[in-house]
Amino acid sequence: TTPILEVKGLTKRFSIQKGWFQKNSYVHAVNGIDLAVRKGETLGIVGESGCGKSTLGRCILRLLTPTSGETIFQGKNIRSLSKPELKAMRRDMQMVFQNPFDTLNPKLMIQQILSEPLIAHGIPKKDRQTLLEETIEIVGLGKQHLLRYPHEFSGGQRQRIGIARALMLRPKLIIADEPVSALDVSIQSQILNLLQDLQEQFELTYIFISHDLSVVRHISDRVAVMYLGEVVEFGDKKELFASPLHPYTQALLSATPVSDPDEKRARIILQGDLPSPSNPPGGCKFHPRCPSCFDMCKKVSPTLQDVNEQLVACHLYG
Ligand code: SF4
Ligand code: MG
């Protein structure tokens, strides 16, 4: 099957101003990412904060303009779209944020907040009320909530409203950026279950961004592991968690608690912090922290290669 979304060589560079006497330098927040997302799947993107995963999500939705690379959505290259075509495409791609109310006007009722995307996309007034009532109930809130204000809701309810907002236009793809990271664990699983129900009901495709491996593991079909702006490992969730190949994935996994005692693995402690993306190490970017680093790693940057249908960028393989 053809993927619903393809990303090729996606790169986002930010320039950072130095002093007048120095040349500007650049941060490669996202550096040459290739991904193909299948219709109806959940693709998890995991990595430490600062690895570029949010930037990647925003570039895909064109909330940020990528520096280079291609994005092909439902067979169309986004770069070749006219303004009206781009607007139509935006209906099909929505985002769920960590704190959905950060950007919303606290003086507006939920009804008005949820109507905004409908108005922006010219949905006729007579259809709006039905959509509002239908959607608020789909996310597990009664329609009496439409007349309330943001401050009247708990964190979990707010995220339900954030999800309702993303659903208003009945999109095909939702990019969820840390959607449960601000919530208590018990509420997290409610929201994850809701997302899974909605996926079935509306045949949604998800890109699910999180620093939390156990959350990504719960919800994803396939997982991409990012490190300093690059995908270092990519594969089917089951295989990737059962036999992680990249030393970074192995370290991440060893640090998450497991419920299955058979799965016990030795804790791998990484040396040092995530290096600054403005001055990444040469060769393999992970080499200063890698317990398996050898000579070649300091000089040559590894590329993704296929190892038993898992993609991994590491010189230990091949
Ligand atoms: Fe470690 Fe070398 Fe593999 Fe990089 S290429 S992850 S430094 S073993
Ligand atoms: Mg982020």
Automatic annotation (TrEMBL):
Residues 5-253 form the ABC transporter domain. CDD domains: ABC_NikE_OppD_transporters. This is ABC transporter ATP-binding protein. The keyword ATP-binding applies. PROSITE patterns: ABC_TRANSPORTER_1, ABC_TRANSPORTER_2. GO terms for molecular function: ATP binding; ATP hydrolysis activity. Coiled coil: none annotated. Keywords: ATP-binding, Nucleotide-binding, Transport. GO terms for biological process: peptide transport; transmembrane transport. Belongs to the ABC transporter superfamily. The keyword Transport applies. It holds the Pfam family oligo_HPY. It comes from the Bacteria. NCBIfam families: oligo_HPY, PRK11308.1.
